[in-house]
Amino acid sequence: MAGAGISTPSGIPDFRSPGSGLYSNLEQYNIPYPEAIFELMYFFVNPKPFFTLAKELYPGNYRPNYAHYFLRLLHDKGLLLRLYTQNIDGLERVAGIPPDKLVEAHGTFATATCTVCRRKFPGEDFRGDVMADKVPHCPVCTGVIKPDIVFFGEELPQRFFLHVTDFPMADLLFIIGTSLEVEPFASLAGAVRSSVPRVLINRDLVGPFAWQQRYNDVAQLGDVVSGVEKLVELLDWNEEMQTLIQKEKEKVGRGSEPCFPPSVSLFLVLGLFRGEQVHACWG
Ligand code: APR
Ligand code: ZN
Q1: What residues are designated binding site?
Q2: Fewer Cβ atoms within 10 A, N terminus or C terminus of the chain?
Q3: What's the rounded mean pLDDT across residues 156-162?
Q4: What chemistry does it catalyse, as a reaction equation (predicted)?
């Protein structure tokens, strides 16, 4: 499970970090309250603030960081059942995690829908308008086109409901860079069996890690990249991570967008990780 905190090392602000989070820096958009920027009723009245923000967040301006590539390495090793992300920056796809392994629970810029005639379009068709500070309009009915980002009150994508089978099957759950403030995504943290270890890698304790820990929860608090680096060290995956990151960087260097796409006993390593961490944060 990933949130905006996994992308802050890539230069994208998260939402709720005091001072630096997006919701603390929306004065320029002149909106009544922070979440209005993701509310349909406000969007229909004034889509401009959302598109001004979209210009900042539009995929293509940022690169994945170490934490994204760790999730990609889990996939490469056949250990990633599915990545549920709240992020709309698309960096999981850029890191090479294939779409079938991804659930973009709060939508994506990859596609867009006309708010009047409901026609679907590739998101790329409107990048130009957004970058030119223009509100994109439907070529058929002239209605406003909205990227398929899930606004507050909107249905989550159908793929989100894969959780019904995924979470009971999981034998380890990572929760990385999220405040676990937004439902129904946040409740997924409680959807794994009680015997399944949950590993939080986050600046602070959040959600059930703050108020209802399980005996086998592990929290690696602090910066997300340092936390993931510590785990990679314990797993002895440093070399594979460096090789992967180098390979992906060379792909970008060649101008092409990176194309998308053994068994270590994570439990044993987790035991080491837990011993070192549980004492530190709950000792
Ligand atoms: N290292 C570790 N933790 C970090 C880092 C970092 N570099 N940067 C941020 N964090 C932590 C923050 O401390 C916070 O706990 O990541 C979490 C980010 O929380 P939010 O800003 O609330 O982002 P997120 O959980 O993804 O928000 C969920 O809210 O507004 C909606 O749709 C929006 O998808 C978003 C949802
Ligand atoms: Zn239309």
Answers
A1: 4-8, 14-16, 86-89, 114, 117, 138, 141, 178-179, 202-204
A2: C
A3: 97
A4: N(6)-acetyl-L-lysyl-[protein] + NAD(+) + H2O = 2''-O-acetyl-ADP-D-ribose + nicotinamide + L-lysyl-[protein]
